[in-house]
């Protein structure tokens, strides 16, 4: 199976340092690499280039600069590998919170760029999968709560048992060609309107 070549955006104000990353990526077989040297218009550049991965290199990260990059990372939803010369626990925690997939302190060497990039992509994909699964689980739980509430309303108002109330909801959903949770929401809404 052939994989699509990655589009990689390097963000670094220091051209010499950016060249180290670019050379490492090109030697690893990545041809679609773009380097930008300033923060002005970064989000627009990301929208236009549509990179698969973003590599950020900060020689001397300060709080303002880190926060600027973290605002970008929260909005672009792509794997981000960040190289910094030095760091502290707060900066590292902020980077992880902002969704940076790989945070490498004092590790900028050409031969390390590709493995770090690969790890950033895998970590991003794993995190995205977990996030999706969590959202699905939350949605399922919320749906179950609505269905349980609707069953309770039917049991109380119509004198039905739990099984009968569920069957009634399910039958209504089939008859109306709607999801069970949609019927349950309608029951809950109607009950709240009628009880006021």
Q: Structural class of the helix and strand makeup?
A: alpha/beta
- How many angstroms separate the termini? 61 Å
Point out poorly predicted stretches: none
Q: Mean pLDDT score, rounded?
A: 84
The dominant shape is: elongated
- What's the SSE pattern? EHEHEHEHEHHH
Record the strand order, biggest sheet: 2-1-3-4-5
Helical coverage, percent range: 55-70%
Tally of contiguous helical segments: 7
Biggest β-sheet, characterized?
A: 5 strands, parallel
Give me the Rg, rounded. Answer: 25 Å
Number of DSSP-assigned strands? 5
Quote the beta fraction. Answer: 5-15%
List the helices and strands and how they pair.
Elements: E1 7-11, H1 15-27, E2 32-36, H2 42-49, E3 53-58, H3 63-76, E4 80-84, H4 89-97, E5 102-105, H5 110-158, H6 162-176, H7 180-195
Parallel strand pairs: 1-2, 1-3, 3-4, 4-5
Account of the protein in words:
By secondary structure, the chain is α/β, with parallel strands linked by helices. The protein is built from seven helices and five strands. The chain has helices at 15-27, 42-49, 63-76, 89-97, 110-158, 162-176, 180-195, and strands at residues 7-11, 32-36, 53-58, 80-84, 102-105. A five-stranded parallel beta sheet has the order 2-1-3-4-5, with helices on both faces. β1 (7-11), α1 and β2 (32-36) form a beta-alpha-beta unit. The mean pLDDT is 84.
